[in-house]
Amino acid sequence: MTKTKKVPSFTLSLIPLIAIAVFLGFGYGLLHLNAEILLIAAATVAGFIALYLGYSYKEIENGIIKSMMKGMPAMLIVIVVGALIGSWIAAGTIPMLVYYGLKIISPQYFLVTASLVCSLISVVTGTSYGTIGTVGVAFIGIAHGLNIPLGQAAGAIVAGAYFGDKLSPFSDTTNLAPIATRSNLFDHIKHMLWTTTPAWLIGMVVYLILGLSSHGAGSVSLEKTDIIMQTIRDNFTFHWVLIIPPIVTLGSAILKKPVIPNMLLSSVLAVVLAILIQGLNLKTSIGSMVTGYIFHSGEPIVDTLFTRGGMVDMMHVTLIAFCAFAFGGIIQSTGMLDVILERLLRVANTAGKIVAASVFASMGTAIMTGSSFLSILIPGELFAPAYKKFNMAAKNLSRTTEDSGTVIVPLIPWSIAGVFIAGTLGVDTLSYVPWAVMCYTGFLFALLYGFTGFAIAPIKRDDETIPGS
Asked: What is the pLDDT of residues 316-370, one digit of tens each?
């Protein structure tokens, strides 16, 4: 006999949200406790409420598993990026990029250059993780050598990488948003330019000002730069073939080949080059993909820079993701998240308020679940009828979910993106957040347009999945 489920009240639905805010705010933010335990604690609170509502443990478990399954594609990419980083360092590809980057990039224009290059690479490849894990790692190495503040450098890298993740037709979130809101891909991308372009330009102006100021560029130590460059030269052999792994990754992305096989192929080629060019043995070369590359030069800063990567290193990211998805799965499968979002919808009785409600719903979902997929899917499903009621095209909603979901997730320390970036670049999430300017300014334009009506497209046809809607 099926047990009758209670419909959660608004007050009851708020309890898990308050719990996760308190646990993470005080436990993680102030006491620096492990985020995994705090997320499990919040999930436990949500679980007890689910039991009170009449859900069995098996049903709660199924909700958690369903939530995790939605995040599995991203987690698989993160794991493979770990192999890519380790093998590219072992091959000498990343060290070579760092070396020549130190030779040609001016400290004053480093932040602008880093953000611009990462933007271009991510647009072409459609992967923020791949961009951060490859050219991002190289730029962090250059930042070390040029004495650029690492928080600023990481912020510029992240903003650039997520510019492409948001706009590239090859990106999973860019494809997911129009599916969730029933718009179409190409209208969605064009419509995002209204919010993404000014946010990106504001970031570039900030980076230029920082770079031209003595504070932003840092106090460049030529001696430090020389030491790093000499250490790289003494320990790695350079050859033009070392650019083959990046070319394979880039070329496969342009040809729209699957991301994971493409990255694995690039990693395997890098392992071969590590043996042929760097003279490493088979065990060490393959080990760089699994446990990462371990660099011993006697120079601490260079050793720290090039001792990283490997699939094992990414297990920490995966663990936090599982814990976050556990919490998200419970509050979603029991209807608690829907109750909170529906209450938002009750007070939204104008077009501007509808846009604002969807902005804060996407941001709230991103904060609660740490998932870019859920921050698009849940508000997209919930607000689609409201946008239609106020004669706003579906591409307005798909744009808003990306403005306040996709690019907000990397700013959340316990999200899979936040943990991945912090671990990969070696920069704490809260250190780079202020400098990832594009990530937190796009939704401001969404709000501005919502209340002014500027760049808000009306519905042209019933079926908005047709290009030109």
From this structure: 777 877 887 788 889 888 988 888 877 877 787 888 999 998 999 899 888 877 8
Spatial contact of 111 and 211, defined as CB atoms under 8 Å apart:
yes
- Cα 175 from Cα 153, distance rounded (Å): 29
Token readout for 123 is 């647009």
How many angstroms separate the CA atoms of 374 and 232, rounded? 42
Spatial neighbors of 244 by CB under 8 A, at least 6 apart, are: 269, 273
User: What does the block give as tokens for 186?
Assistant: 């190409």
Count of positions (residues) in the chain = 469
Instruction: Verify that 180 and 213 share a domain, yes or no.
Output: yes
Per-residue DSSP letter, 293? B
CA angle 451, 452, 456 (to 5 degrees): 90
- Together in a domain, 309 and 351: no
Q: Give me the numbers of helices (H) and strands (E) for the chain, helices first please.
A: 24, 0
273 plus 138 within the same structural domain:
yes
Q: Which residues have a Cβ under 8 Å from the Cβ of 235 and sit 6 or more positions away?
A: 95, 295, 297
* E runs forming strands in 312-439: none
Instruction: Based on the fold, state whether residues 265 and 120 are members of the same structural domain.
Output: yes
